[in-house]
Design goal:
Length: 431
Amino acid sequence: MTSGPRPRLADPSAPAGLRVAVLGVGERSSIALHAVEGGTATIVAAVDPDLAARRRSVETFGSGVATFASHRALLESGMPVHAAFVTTPDHTHAEIARDLLEAGVAVYLEKPIATTVEDADAVLETAAATGTSLFVGHNMRYMPVVELMHSIIRRGDIGDVKAVWCRHFVGNGGDYYFKDWHAERSLSTGLLLQKGAHDIDVIHLLAGGTTSRVTAIGDLAVYGDVKDRRINADRRLADWFSLSTWPPQSQRELNPVIDVEDLSMMLMTLDNGVLASYQQCHFTPDYWRNYTVIGTKGRLENFGDTVGGVVKVWTARTTYLADGNAQYPIPGASEGHAEADARAVADFMSSLSCGTSTQASPVSARNAVAAAVAATLSLRHGATPQPVATVSPELSAYFRDATDRDPSQMVQHPFSSRELTDQPRTKECFE
């Protein structure tokens, strides 16, 4: 496979400055607002099949935004668009992303890249064939806690990584994932994919490898017993979310169809010999992630995953030592997820304006989906071990998978758009 044509603008004669569209005006669509913070981009269009959502987009993105009922209507309108944020339901990602990429529109695709390996590969193949820029929004790579742990590992403090364990306490799971389409296998595959792809990607980053074989177990342990159901298409998360809903069995108005697991555990063998585990529970009272990374010279573990938390490191033989041998406060200015969103979007926009590479790799995003799909298959077939489908060498070479690259190292991206990089540079391009 050749590298293909370089990315192109939808309309090279468009005025200077990036013209941005938002596809899917739901809970995640507001991340596109970060694209205009540098003053070099404008949100010009919003797309959603729901009339109420289109009306809401005017409130969110401004009265000058044009609205469309479908992404095809946007493309057929002839409106020049340089980049698009795709925050639609997961099962629509592949089709929408491929159409945009074929039209020469750079794509910020909310994670997961797709809900099947076949669709994920098809998105990568389209990006490679057209040369259009593709970024998958694995924003956890931009969370200060992840960057801190990664820097400790790369510095050699705990030696060579041999094991990574992740426990994910999804305390808001009932509200986030069991009152809409997330609860249906046909639309999400399962929560090891929809929710777990984040952490699988981080495990790959910290371990410096990619999952090659998995086994998993899981169950619909709690929410399947809640009989109060409702179609919530007319409502949004803010209409039903409440921390006062406890215990989880007291949840009401869950999605009519619930056939995904609310408790899952997977074991992973990585291609570099590292062993890893990921555990996810959607009915815990607390909501955070805990990583343990064990190396040949020590281990690290995070307590809290945002500012105010700490990463502890043990590097000497001892019995119980609560504080470890060293502690590193988790930096940041705000809640980790929101800060990571802003940094991820800034990285995407910089790649378009300045021609730099990004911390998040489309191939890494695809590999997270492949591991999650295999784990879900294992879970639903008696924990039988499953091989993980590998990406083609041609696609891996094209995207230069950045799994083991230091996030602080930004290099020139060989597939950046000449037209986009001919746009006026901001000062950030030279810092």
